Amino acid sequence: MVLLGLLCALAAVLYLLAASRVRRWPATRTLAFTAGLAVVAGQAWLGDAADRTLWAHMIEHLLITLVAPPLIVLGAPAQLALRALPPAERGRVARPARSALARAAMRPTVVGGVFLAVMVASHVPALYDAALGSSALHALQHGLYFWSGVAFWAIVLDVGPLPRRASPLGRVLLLLATMPPMALVGVTIASAQDVVYDHYADQSRALADQGSAGTLMWLGGTVPLGAVALALGWRALRLEDDRQLARERRLEARAGTGRVE
């Protein structure tokens, strides 16, 4: 927990130093990035509660997949790093992000598949209990949650530099495709008649705790994704309306001057 806090503090210092070297770097991006780091560091304080109750552990997972990653992505740290570098260094540093491997790895289908695979597989009882019994496996589990979440939200929020950009429709479909599996995991846990994870079997009110945790996974993992999908869909429609209006105005202007398309 202390090490994680120190790493987050170091990342914040490096980000602020880079921002100080860039003209007119948006304060909103700095706020988003530091807020994301605060969530990463803060969720570690749930450690004791998460060891005792499944619902607290589920909150941890939601924080490091659906809260911290989008905030950090909105902070655009890669974009900031490139702008803070000397012009001669930018191309060399950015080159790996434009490679064929990066383009293949950042396909929306690949990113979404990895994100879902991590979320679903990690909640298989044998793997979940193994992670709870090993500090190293638990750290690996949380690392996979976080970094797969960062890649997922980078695609969804379209914050560059990205080797491959998804269309607005593709981003909405990615969100919609992610919701049912996460809901299924949550409903399966919430509706189970027996304790799913042995680690919590000896806890008092284990089934009630499990029901709360499953409901958190179900609603907390789908409602935010649905809200973002609606927001992206609405924004895409508004942009298309604006483009159509601009085209009509250009046609009217050309017609008024006697020009023919």
Question: What can be said about this structure in brief?
Answer:
By secondary structure, this protein is mainly alpha-helical. The chain has one domain (2-256). It is built from twelve helices and no strands.
Structural class: mainly alpha
Shape: globular
Instruction: Quote the distance from N terminus to C terminus.
Output: 65 Å
The largest sheet is: none
- As a whole number of angstroms, the C-alpha radius of gyration is 22 Å
Q: What's the rounded overall pLDDT mean?
A: 88
User: What are the secondary-structure elements, in order, as H or E?
Assistant: HHHHHHHHHHHH
How large a portion of the residues is in β-strands, by DSSP E?
under 5%
Q: Helical proportion?
A: over 70%
Number of strands: 0
Provide a count of the helices.
12
What is the total domain count?
1
Poorly predicted spans: none
Would you kindly provide a written description of the structure presented here, covering whatever features stand out?
The structure is a single chain. This protein has about 260 residues and is mostly helical. The protein is built from twelve helices and no strands. The radius of gyration is 22 Å and the shape is globular.
